[in-house]
Known about the structure:
Elements: H1 2-19, H2 23-27, E1 30-38, E2 46-49, H3 51-64, E3 67-77, E4 87-98, E5 104-116, E6 119-127, H4 132-137
Parallel strand pairs: 1-6
Antiparallel strand pairs: 1-2, 3-4, 4-5, 5-6
Amino acid sequence: xxxxxxxxxxxxxxxxxxxxxxxxxxxxxxxxxxxxxxxxxxxxxxxxxxxxxxxxxxxxxxxxxxxxxxxxxxxxxxxxxxxxxxxxxxxxxxxxxxxxxxxxxxxxxxxxxxxxxxxxxxxxxxxxxxxxxxxxxxxxx
Length: 141
């Protein structure tokens, strides 16, 4: 159960790093061989493999959105008895952000994060609203 508590706390810290545009802290949660997948059909969509590629994605994300506020609704851990930092975590979040053009947007979603030895090895984002509002916020409409 201690492993699950640590996984939840570390996951919350990663989202806090995003809210603060703290790229070095954000990247400290990823393994060198991690994969990050973002949905949709915009420039930010697709799979990013390796820490350098993921770091570049977040650099562009922070540039696109000067104001980011993730509000975590719930963090669920697959195996509450897992030890050694290997587990799967699901994070349900609401998001309010402002893009560099000043457009305010809101959305919600879930990240499913696989941890290995306490670091992210796989992170897949699922976004609730991928319609016109989503595209406008990304400058893709």
